[in-house]
Amino acid sequence: MELILKQDVENLGFKDDVVTVKNGYGRNFLIPSGSAILATASAKKVLAENLKQRAYKEQKIVEEANKVADALKALDIKIASKVGAGDKLFGSVNNIDVAEAIAKEGQSIEKKYINVIGGAVKRTGKYNAIIRLHREVTVDLEFEVVAAQA
Description:
Helix content is about 35%, strand content about 30%. By secondary structure, it is an alpha+beta fold. The strands form three sheets. The protein has a four-stranded mixed sheet with strand order 4-9-8-6. It has a three-stranded antiparallel sheet with strand order 2-1-3, with helices on one face. A hairpin with a 2-residue loop joins strand 8 (about 125-135) and strand 9 (about 135-145).
């Protein structure tokens, strides 16, 4: 079943992508939730026209995303967390903590666009996170988890 996505769908595609999914997933989830519409011939023509008109605007958005990416690469992120025996954390550090640390540095990134490589961090040290600013612009951000001062 071919569908046109009306919004970004995790692990499937971005808004205005034409994707092929199984019939049940499309009929029972994507279409009723408003995330997609059927990719008929007329809907594809309308989509092509909209994409053509949006190409110029998209270029400016990509340039803005690249500026934000350069600013993020320059940041030195350190996340302080309580540490137990050895270098093991009480709890863990995840994308929410990374988003808060970036916000303290003056950049605002939504937590859903941050993916900490390897899942939740449970020890001190240096780690990486991938930040998706745009469908064409991603940033590999290095951050460090350090012991909080008592």
